[in-house]
Automatic annotation (TrEMBL):
The keyword Hydrolase does not apply. Keywords: Aminotransferase, Pyridoxal phosphate, Transferase. Pfam families: Cys_Met_Meta_PP (PF01053). This is Aminotransferase class I/II-fold pyridoxal phosphate-dependent enzyme. Belongs to the trans-sulfuration enzymes family.
């Protein structure tokens, strides 16, 4: 389903610094001068293209990063935010008002789940959580109040694949907005090309890739991005999830190597998934033929980037999972840490960490078991060597 080349589109953008620098200058200012009072008025009204007003609204550095991410997602425009949650909450609050409903995948990032489940009802916005892989169930949950279908391309932490093309057809049929969190699969899947209306990323993960920054982005139509920044009623303007210019400049530099990193994350994860499956472990990885979303993924993905860097292994019990993670950390195979997309492998037990917002009974129902370990596979140069060392840990703990 390759309709554009995201890495090439980013590469074709060219920015220079103020003194001919090869990186754009950082705009280290919160406010901007105007030569005429009239232009200031026009800028407030949103009618002065290319003028900056105040940095909560926009900054040159944030616009550069936004442009590059819009090129990556093939969207008309993008707005960067201070975090992934800043992007998610702003989008949902912009699209929904009191009385509206959301139909959401039930396997989503814990923070997003908590926001929909615990926070939005305070504003009389209700969410129906569904198995997003069952299109008929999704459709059955749509009511006359539904405004948004929400999903993650590759879901956290169960790695279910949302069939974005089918969901897009459904959302068009019912006049809804399809909002896709593409954090696990930058470059791998291009949701806008497949019919999504809005794409969100946590830049904190693969896109920045060095676990030193928090950030987010919203990609969508120029009209939607303008709405978000509107001084009178825009969520990004009024809720204040503004990214700092110094940070957006640093994330833009890391974005330059994302295509290379994604290929290596995918290559390493695929190797480990295949090998551990052969060893008889319960491995979940979208690149495995027995994965429930394998065919859907092959329909959606940009093949050169593989099936992503995320993998889970169920080792049977929480005690075993904890022992294995501690031993792997001791052997320097990775870190026992939440988050993902780092050069080093990161692992955590989602039931007791990143998905702990989800009640235990609901975790069971969706197949999130106690012994599940979520791996974000790193950029290891020799993955065969890593595999052997991980295997030694598993043998020592009677997991293999
Ligand atoms: C981490 C994450 C988020 C939240 O992003 P922050 O930058 O931590 O606010 C949202 N969605 C997914 C899939 C994530 O992994």
């Amino acid at each position: 389903m390759k309709t554009h080349k995201p890495a090439d589109q980013i590469q074709d953008l060219q920015y220079f610094g103020e003194f001919g620098g090869v990186n754009p200058s950082i705009s280290d200012s919160s406010t901007y001068t105007f030569l005429s009072a009239k232009t200031m008025f026009d800028t407030f009204e949103g009618n002065a293209e290319g003028c900056y007003l105040y940095s909560r609204h926009s900054t040159p550095s944030n616009l550069y990063l936004g442009q590059a991410l819009a090129a990556m997602e093939n969207s008309e425009a993008a707005n960067v935010t201070a975090s992934g949650m800043g992007a998610i909450t702003s989008v949902l609050l912009q699209l929904c008002q009191s009385g509206d409903e959301i139909v959401s995948s039930r396997t989503i990032y814990g923070g997003t789940y908590a926001f929909m489940k615990n926070f939005l009802p305070k504003l009389n916005i209700q969410t129906q959580f569904v198995d997003i892989t069952k299109i008929d169930k999704v459709e059955a949950s749509i009511t006359e109040n539904t405004k948004v279908i929400y999903c993650e391309t590759i879901s956290n932490p169960l790695l279910e694949i949302a069939d974005i093309q089918e969901l897009a057809k459904l959302s068009k049929k019912h006049n809804l907005k399809l909002v896709v969190d593409n954090t696990f699969s930058p470059f791998i899947v291009s949701p806008i090309d497949l019919g999504a209306d809005v794409v969100i990323h946590s830049l904190t993960k693969f896109i920045n890739g060095s676990s030193d920054a928090v950030g987010g982005v919203i990609c969508g139509t120029q009209e939607f991005i303008d709405d978000l920044r509107n001084v009178n009623n825009g969520a990004c303007m009024l809720l204040g999830p503004t990214m700092d210019s110094l940070r957006s400049a640093s994330i833009l530099k890391n974005l330059r190597t994302l295509h290379i990193r994604m290929k290596q994350h995918s290559k390493n994860a695929e190797y480990l998934a295949q090998a551990f499956q052969k060893d008889g472990l319960k491995v979940v990885y979208p690149g495995l033929e027995n994965h429930s979303g394998h065919l859907a993924m092959k329909n959606l993905y940009n093949a050169e980037y593989g099936f992503g860097g995320m993998m889970t292994i169920d080792v049977g019990s929480l005690d075993k999972a904890n022992a294995l993670m501690e031993l792997m950390q001791m052997k320097n195979l990775g870190y026992l840490a939440v988050s993902l997309g780092f050069y080093k492998t990161l692992f955590s037990a989602p039931g007791t960490s990143t998905s702990s917002e989800i009640p235990v009974e609901e975790q069971k129902e969706m197949g999130l078991s106690d012994g599940l370990i979520r791996f974000s596979i790193g950029l290891d140069n020799d993955i065969e060597r890593t595999y052997q060392k991980m295997k030694e840990c598993m043998i020592e703990l009677n997991i293999l």
